[in-house]
Amino acid sequence: MKVAVVGATGMVGNVVLKVLAEQNFPVSQLIPVASQRSVGKSVMFANEKHLVVGLQDAVNLEPDVAIFSAGGSTSLEWAPKFAKKDCRVIDNSSAWRMDPDKKLIIPEVNGDLLTEEDMIIANPNCSTIQLLMALAPLHKKYTINRVVVSTYQSISGTGVKAVDQMNNEREGKTGEMAYPYPIDQNCLPHCDVFMENGYTKEEMKLTNETKKILDTTIKVTATAVRVPVQGGHSEAVNITFENDFDLGEVRKLIHETAGLTLQDNPETNIYPMPIYASGKDDVFVGRIRRDESLENSLNMWIVADNLRKGAATNAVQIAKLLVDKGILKVEQFR
Predict the structure, then answer these.
(1) Is the pLDDT of residue 233 over 80?
(2) What are phi and psi of 131, to 5 degrees?
């Protein structure tokens, strides 16, 4: 089928192309889309060069599905134009996530909600995806009351400008700054912009998206920190349940859940780290231990590649789920 990738020349767009190829998604025609300054350039897909086109040209080509990774303002303006052409839109920005009429989907968690009526589907925030991948099976078993999460987020979550800043700092060069302070040899408790309540948008995304996807009654508080790591987000998570739990059973649930990898053997220094999550689609969970300061409470450490499961992989999985459900019809592939 015709597949448009909007933002194909960006960091997430490049990974979307890789994941589409890796997962053998049924692409009969790839339509790479980017801003006017990139039109006419080419991207590689399936060992072939494909010319980048502008947004209106892409709409005119009437793709069957479009994966957007081009920012909120682009999504707000153009996603409805694609949808009017009977194109399913899967959007990586925050533009549609809290829209009450749009589904916010992690396929393993709430993919069953997708229906024929869903033309624009929102991809959750990268930090939310890895958090809820681990929380969902535990909530189903023990009922989560409260979550305290502290994130350690890589600079790739900000984009190429941030990667360039850190590399410049490490090489002793001056250049454009993505952050208000140096990031190399530093940690910034500042992801996205600050809001009136003192939290950043990133922190409130974790709160609001958890409620929308998992359960509106769960209390969530977050601190999001940018760290000098090029790829991979990490999260220290404290969970309080309605019911008591067995640590062995918790580990078993994590181990048996599709999309999760258990790495939890402190005796042999086995625990999740960004360096091992890089380039992988699973979410890695470890450092599982009882919180001895509060009953029915648990600590864990969650790591994932933020450009893959946190963005590109989740989006492609949504597209595959649309195929599996017959929402993207088989006839379209012929």
Answers:
(1) yes
(2) -65, -50
